[in-house]
Amino acid sequence: MGDVHSIKVVCAILEQHNRVLVTQRNQNMAQPLLWEFPGGKLEPDEEEEQALIREIKEELQLDILPVKRLTPVSYALGDKLLELIPYICHYKAGAIQLVEHKAYQWAERSRLRNYNWCPADLPVLEEYLQLTQLSL
Ligand SMILES: Nc1nc2c([nH]c(=O)n2[C@@H]2O[C@H](COP(=O)(O)OP(=O)(O)OP(=O)(O)O)[C@@H](O)[C@H]2O)c(=O)[nH]1
């Protein structure tokens, strides 16, 4: 569904022990070296939560549980319209192995604004901080 030119990307705000997982895109990816919430593109006819579970398993070797959908963000990325769909997620199992990212960090919420984010992630970050009452 949706606009034929839009790309749907799901991303995980993965919480564990009061920290949030942030990942850095590698040099060869689009938006090189920027930080993001890990995730990826929906496949045709795939449910959002299933896509997120699949992507996090593929990219990080982690099992997660999506728990709350936040507000999708539309962002013009080159000639494409990106629709970034965030979910707060909980850690279930596994140890991180970086398959395609350059780096990862478990960040305290109060430090999340310090990263050099993909621009589409900034409204996601602000909604998340507001929800968790650390926006000031
Ligand atoms: N996974 C993820 N992608 C994001 C975020 N923010 C954001 O702008 N994006 C963009 O959404 C698209 C998601 O693509 P992707 O992670 O599947 O990987 P990619 O573009 O490297 O894959 P491709 O080579 O198959 O096109 C990328 O253009 C990426 O830059 C985010 O928080 N998480």
List the topology elements:
Elements: E1 6-16, E2 19-24, E3 35-36, E4 39-41, H1 48-60, E5 63-69, E6 73-77, E7 80-93, E8 103-108, H2 121-131
Parallel strand pairs: 1-7
Antiparallel strand pairs: 1-2, 1-4, 2-3, 2-8, 5-7, 6-7
8-OXO-guanosine-5'-triphosphate binds near residues 9, 11, 37, 40 and 118.
Describe the protein's architecture and organization.
With 136 residues, the protein is α+β, with helices and mostly antiparallel strands. The chain has one domain: Alpha-Beta Complex (Nucleoside Triphosphate Pyrophosphohydrolase). It has 2 helices and 8 strands; from the N terminus they run ββββαββββα. Strands 1, 2, 3, 4, 5, 6, 7 and 8 form an 8-stranded mixed β-sheet that branches. The longest helix has 13 residues. It binds 8-OXO-guanosine-5'-triphosphate. The site of 8-OXO-guanosine-5'-triphosphate has 17 residues, from strand 1, strand 4 and strand 7. Keywords: DNA damage, DNA repair, DNA replication, Hydrolase, Magnesium, Metal-binding, Mutator protein. It catalyses: 8-oxo-dGTP + H2O = 8-oxo-dGMP + diphosphate + H(+); 8-oxo-GTP + H2O = 8-oxo-GMP + diphosphate + H(+). It is an enzyme of class 3 (hydrolase).
